[in-house]
Amino acid sequence: MTDALLPVFQRAAMVFDHGEGAWLTTTEGERYLDFGAGIAVNALGYSHPHLVAALERQGRKLWHLSNVYRIPEGERLAERLAAVCFADLAFFANSGAEANECAIKIARRHHAAAGRPERWRVLTFAGAFHGRTLATMAAGGNPKYLAGFGPAVDGFDQCPLEDMAAVRAAIGPETAAIMIEPIQGEGGIRPVSHGFLRDLRALCDEQGLLLIFDEIQCGIGRTGQLFAHQAAAIAPDVMSLAKGLGGGFPIGACLSTRDAAHGMAPGAHGSTFGGNPLAVAVANAVLDVVCDRSFLADVRRKGDLARELIEDVAARHPHVVVQVRGCGLMLGIKTTCPSVVLVEALRREAKVLTIAAGDNVTRMLPPLVVSDAEIRLFAECLDRTLAAL
Ligand SMILES: *Cc1c(COP(=O)(O)O)cnc(C)c1O
């Protein structure tokens, strides 16, 4: 392994060469079952023919165009996203953190442009993860990520989840918005109750605040709904997307109602690479697949199957497994051992990939195209690995 990379990641030693569906193959020809999917990014698995075709077709035409020119595929992507949720407008970025930066800027401008510049603070929640830029790190509030980088960016206040009294107490004359992941991912697959999301919506309406949903991990079909909040039958004013949106090609999006974004005039925000022709061509191809009702129904069915099998396995290992939680194909197992121990054991002993998260939770985020047989194989591997721990 080279020492020429900034050593901020602890990397596993094997080298993957290619992949197909839910499987990755190393340069040595060893196959791994991938229940991490690049942290919910490879929503359609590896080498999906429809995505490969879209990338190749666009690759022969144009890769990059400045946003000072029209990008018809991006216009189409914005219209399609607006048609399937609450939003009227889309801004395209290259990552989740950038999508959240745009959401935070929209919220601050919303109030400033309406003559309330004093309203600029955003309320977030314990256990949140919103990215690694200076502002999104402050929004997440995780002391582990903030340490040693100087004073955290100001403008964020934090509350415990599911505590409306604390939320009410934390809102002041400077509050602009409330920002929340409908299902916390990095924090340890913590679904937020629909009641709490609805109460936040009502409070935002009452107080004139914007409600921002970070669906970067839980969006794009992951839960069996196109967007996780749709199961709660309420909508935010602003929503950030990334991860699954490009199916492996980097793209983020900040979606907004026209009213929430009323302060965003030409020059208010921008990105050199955001929404380039390659990224939007692939994202449109992802939507071709995931917006289909029967595809989403199948994700829900497979999520139920995975949940049932994993609960069965968990019941056989009560000394290690504390809890199984999540929704659709966004599942977590909380263990008594550190999650990295289970993640490494699964990788070494069973050649199965999962992702560690906070709160001693091991994340299972298979590609949405995972088969029933692969889900059964995963459950068997998990059973064997837990038995050997
Ligand atoms: C991954 C993630 C982000 C950050 O996305 P990047 O592309 O790494 O910047 C933000 N919010 C949530 C909920 C995420 O899961």
Question: Please, could you describe this protein's structure?
Answer:
By secondary structure, this protein is α/β, with parallel strands linked by helices. The protein has 2 domains: about 110 residues, Aspartate Aminotransferase, domain 1, CATH 3.90.1150; about 240 residues, Aspartate Aminotransferase, domain 2 (3-Layer(aba) Sandwich), CATH 3.40.640.10. Helix content is about 35%, strand content about 20%. It contains 12 helices and 17 strands. The strands form 4 sheets. Strands 4-12-11-10-7-5-6 form a 7-stranded mixed beta sheet, with helices on both faces. It has a 4-stranded mixed beta sheet with strand order 1-2-3-15. Strands 13-14-17-16 form a 4-stranded antiparallel beta sheet, with helices on one face. Helix 2 runs antiparallel to helix 9 and helix 10 runs parallel beside helix 12. The longest helix has 24 residues. It is globular and about 60 Å long. The two termini are about 30 Å apart. The mean pLDDT is about 100. Bound molecules: pyridoxal-5'-phosphate. Belongs to the class-III pyridoxal-phosphate-dependent aminotransferase family. ArgD subfamily. Homodimer. Its cofactor is pyridoxal 5'-phosphate. One of its GO terms (biological process) is L-arginine biosynthetic process. Pfam families: Aminotran_3.
Determine Rg (CA atoms, Å).
21 Å
* Spatial order of the strands forming the largest sheet: 4-12-11-10-7-5-6
Question: Quick one: CATH class of the largest domain?
Answer: Alpha Beta
Ligand names: pyridoxal-5'-phosphate
| Unreliable stretches covering 5 or more consecutive residues | none
Mean pLDDT: 98
User: CATH H level of the largest domain: which superfamily?
Assistant: Type I PLP-dependent aspartate aminotransferase-like (Major domain)
| Assigned CATH architecture of the largest domain | 3-Layer(aba) Sandwich
Oligomer: single chain
- Estimated helix fraction: 25-40%
Instruction: Estimate what percentage of residues fall within beta strands.
Output: 15-25%
